[in-house]
Amino acid sequence: MQIKKLISFLEKIAPASYQESYDNAGLLVGSPEQSIKGVLVCLDSTEAVIKEAKQKNCNLVIAHHPIIFRGLKKLNGKNYIERTIISAIKNDIAIYAIHTNLDNVIYQGVNSKIAEKLGLTKTKILAPKSNLKKLSTYVPIAHAEMIRKALFKAKVVYEDSTFSSMGIDTYLDYPTDGKLKLEVHFQEASQKQLLKILTDYIAPKEFRYEIIAIENQSAQTGAGLIGELSRSADEKAFLKRVKKIMKSSCVRHTALLGKKIKRVAICGGAGSFLLPRAIARNADIFITADYKYHEFFDADGRIIIADIGHFESERYTIDLLSDIIKNKFSTFAVHCTDEMTNPVHYLT
């Protein structure tokens, strides 16, 4: 099976268009036409991971974090990024990164995996994105039902619903065949596929459509997650439980507030930008990483901030990706890395 087929599958779950503007997710090294021998899943691509991939006969590394964030002008091995890329190219190993696009989906996303581990229920996106659009077009009545079924099967229509109304097509004031006005809401990432399906049923010269952006926020995409514990927990006991589950060597947190924990906000990786959302959604605690000293003051006695470490907050992304791929494909081996790629060490 070619790498591009696996990428296509992964990007149906986490479309590349969902990544943040600063990100560089996608196929970073290698050809999409290359056949897959084996896959090694990791959080970070490093020289050690490439070596491990070679040892395990894997020619594709799937990482959460992109090894390349900025443009490279030279490849002479002067730093770990260049050395990793050179090693991958020499050993014919492709590197694919699925980063903030996987962070920004609720279904099979990074934060949903954290929520699962912590036992959260009633989970919702903490900061939903406004990436919905509406398409309006006219379709032949005879094809309307087939078109709707094709759209639903491809899962390109938001919330599996369409709206239709009867209309009369006219030409120079003379009525022609009756048509159905079809309106659908869709997420921006689905636009290309949506138009392709419609053109399969509507002749190009008759295909006229309008697409507009709408202000409604998506319940399926966005940053962070908020959910509830099945029963309220003591603050200190809950922090200890989080530390154990997420295998954190250290949890930095703000002062305890002397109340029970029920509503929990989370964001894998650096999530300080979501603190106002967590407070507005009445979260009792916000679990994330990469908090700076002065940012802890922003809790201001309204919420507990718990910084569990960047690697620690996203460590289960490796299991998430491995399970997603194994459940779909069985023609190649999928391995989780044995390398500890966390660059942060703690003196205990």
Could you give a short description of this structure?
The chain has 348 residues and is an alpha/beta fold. The protein is 29% helix and 30% strand. It has three domains: 120 residues, NIF3 (NGG1p interacting factor 3)-like (Udp-n-acetylmuramoylalanyl-d-glutamate--2,6- Diaminopimelate Ligase, Chain: A, domain 1, 3-Layer(aba) Sandwich), CATH 3.40.1390; 105 residues, NIF3 (NGG1p interacting factor 3)-like (Udp-n-acetylmuramoylalanyl-d-glutamate--2,6- Diaminopimelate Ligase, Chain: A, domain 1, 3-Layer(aba) Sandwich), CATH 3.40.1390; 82 residues, 2-Layer Sandwich (Alpha-Beta Plaits), CATH 3.30.70.
Describe this structure in words.
The radius of gyration is 24 Å and the shape is globular. β3 (60-65), α3 and β4 form a beta-alpha-beta unit. Helix content is 29%, strand content 30%. The strands form 3 sheets. A 6-stranded mixed β-sheet has the order 5-10-12-13-14-11. Strands 1-4-3-2-15 form a 5-stranded mixed β-sheet, with helices on both faces. Strands 7-8-6-9 form a 4-stranded antiparallel β-sheet, covered by helices on one side. It is an alpha/beta fold and 348 residues long. It has helices at 3-13, 47-55, 80-90, 100-103, 110-118, 144-154, 191-201, 235-245, 275-280, 310-314, 317-328; strands spanning 26-29, 38-44, 60-65, 94-97, 121-128, 132-140, 162-171, 174-187, 209-213, 222-233, 252-253, 261-270, 285-289, 304-307, 333-336. It is built from 11 helices and 15 strands. It has 3 domains: 3-101 and 316-336, Udp-n-acetylmuramoylalanyl-d-glutamate--2,6- Diaminopimelate Ligase, Chain: A, domain 1, CATH 3.40.1390.30; 110-127 and 222-308, NIF3 (NGG1p interacting factor 3)-like (Udp-n-acetylmuramoylalanyl-d-glutamate--2,6- Diaminopimelate Ligase, Chain: A, domain 1, 3-Layer(aba) Sandwich), CATH 3.40.1390; 132-213, Alpha-Beta Plaits.
